[in-house]
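thought: fold this chain, then report.
action: predict
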Amino acid sequence: MSDQQSTPSQGVTNEISHRFVETNGIQMHIAEQGEGPLVVLLHGFPESWYSWRHQLPALAAAGYHAVAPDLRGYGQTDRPEAVEQYSQLHLVGDLIGLLDALGQEQAVVVAHDFGTAVAWNAALLRPDRIRGVVALSVPYLPRGPVSALTGLRAALGSGFYMQYLQEPGVADAELAQDARASLLRFFHWGFGDSPQARAATSPVVPAGGTLFDLMPDTAALPDWLTEADLDFYAAEFDRTGFSGGLNWWRTIDLSWELTAPWQGAPMTTPALYIHGDRDGSIQLPGMDQLIPNLQYLVPKLTRTVALPGVGHWTQQERPEEVTTELLKFLGGL
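observation:
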């Protein structure tokens, strides 16, 4: 069973309701608001449903049923122990089971960071259930001849941060020493005005170093994050630890193996892609070729939107702009 429900800061979420649903063999916590066509919001790392705190009320006001789950391994949702239970097939299964639990045949899925992998794969594996995909930060990455992790390791070396995260217990312990400080480092690392974003540095851990060598310590909050916001995130990860979220990276190779039957399958779902022009994700090897040619991989891509001065935490850094683009896309379906 999941831990007891925590209470978000008042004034931000007082119209958002919370409950648990059973899906794909786990108990999932969801935050929801509004009535109408279903829009499911999938968070990334190290986040939770709370990363959509600005979009939930805006979507509800526009006539949609907005649902933001804590994904497998996060927040108040169950956290299986076995790493192999975090494959993309498990995560897509959680999403489809959520639609079933809500009694809905279809949904538009909006996703950020690693949540985009679930959204794109759900559209690929179950196009009958996904009306549209809005991806923030990470574009569609079709299955290649090797896994994405293998390719990036070949390009950037064994110190590449995703490779560093593979060893169970290592990054988990580093981040958990002081969850609040660790989260603040992460939020600064990907922020549009951070030194790292301006320098466009490669996310490679130096030999003998730690994850924190990529993310200088800081006490200052970025202007999109309040003390209450950081307190909420910190309380969640103090309670759960970081292993559930990190296990998503530890199944990249496994997910590549399991999705072999969909090699070359067409992406037929309508989509919108939004990224910040200072997001480190778009500076990874190959992105300069992939993003301009995304229309060839996603034929029903309606737009690619680059937000100036924005880093990785797209919907939190520029909530109004993201919501405006989201509502345009939803209105056109």
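thought: worth noting. The longest helix spans residues 88-101.
final: tokens above.
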